[in-house]
Amino acid sequence: MPTLTPARTAALVASFAGRRVLVVGDVMLDHFLFGRVERISPEAPVPVVAFDHDQYRLGGAANVAHNARALGAAAEVVGLVGADEAADVVRAEAGKLGIGTRGLVPAGDRPTTRKVRVVTTRNQQVARVDYESDTEAPAALEAALAEAAAACVAEADVVVVSDYLKGVVTHGLMRHLVAEAGRRGVAVLVDPKIPHVDHYAGATLVTPNHHEAGIATSMRVRTDDEARLAARRFQQRARCESVLITRGEHGMWLLEGRWAGESPAGDGRRADVVSEARLPAVAREVSDVTGAGDTVIACVALALAAGAMLAEAAELANHAAGISVSRFGPATVSPEELLACFHAERA
Fold it and tell me: Is residue 38 packed enough to be buried (19+ CB in 10 Å), middle (13-18) or exposed (0-12)?
């Protein structure tokens, strides 16, 4: 479904600069411990990792903001952090990247979500330790998050919700966010988790992967026909406008909808199907799919903010995903790399 010309692509990517993206969701810190493996422990059948160096990367909602920033946008993040050293690292890393953190709400009774990965110097993961609380934000924290989000929506061109089931994306916060964005004519895009699918009513676009779409619709998603049906069922289940299913090596399936008034059941707006299309995968050697969904939704959001049609935004994001999965860990894509990938595909 190629719709973009080289000139149109260049114009859209150039327009990313200065767009303002608000990311609301579960902020994480990825902590990598790199080392050499030369022997097996005599205490248990596990490798002994001789520490070499460590590295921090922003994860979750913060990685979406990082992706938007790398593509040229201004980015602000709203989420929860603990009163701990990991929160200080998140703020410091975000500051280095120029990501706004005034929307980070401190929660002293829960840790900053941190994933510690032990990795060999050949980028092979040996183990992972998670520090987190996945309980839903209580009323006081939900109110603080809603207040922070409202202040930031007023300055945003597009809103992204990054849901990792770590307690930030509550039903109440989503209703507040969709209402605030709607009043300002700002699109709301959601990278979902299926236990929260009923939270996303009124969203402009939801981007499940094929596993998530299958669970939400009680069907397998393997063929194009199954993807088409799953996207339609997902649109009805989530009560969102449009759906973009990411399908790994099979590319993406886009259902573009249009709001068509209130649902007869009185449970919010309903959307009609305007167009449907398959986007084939951009051929790349896959190294690591970690964070690829963050790259996709950041690129779609920026393209829409820059004036792209949804099909154009999805096509750009498809190329960005192809770059992201070729790298280790949560990765970002630059405007120059995105343009180069597009031109290489057209060559």
Answer: exposed
What range defines the domain where residue 184 resides?
Answer: 6-29+57-115+132-346
Instruction: Note the pLDDT tens digit of each residue in 266-303.
Output: 667 889 999 999 998 875 555 445 557 899 999 999 99
Beta strand 252-262 with 242-246: parallel, antiparallel or unpaired?
A: antiparallel
What's the CATH number where 259 sits?
3.40.1190.20
Whether the CB-CB separation of 296 and 207 falls below 8 Å is answered with yes
Spatial CA neighbour of 80 closest among 129, 155, 138: 138
Task: Say whether 294 is catalytic.
Answer: yes
Write down the pLDDT at residue 346: 61
pTM for this one? 0.92
The single-letter DSSP state of residue 249 is G
Strand order in the sheet with 100-106: 100-106, 74-81, 20-25, 158-162, 187-191, 205-206, 242-246, 252-262, 269-279
Count up the domains in the chain and report the number.
1
Contact present, 29 and 83 (Cβ < 8 Å)? no
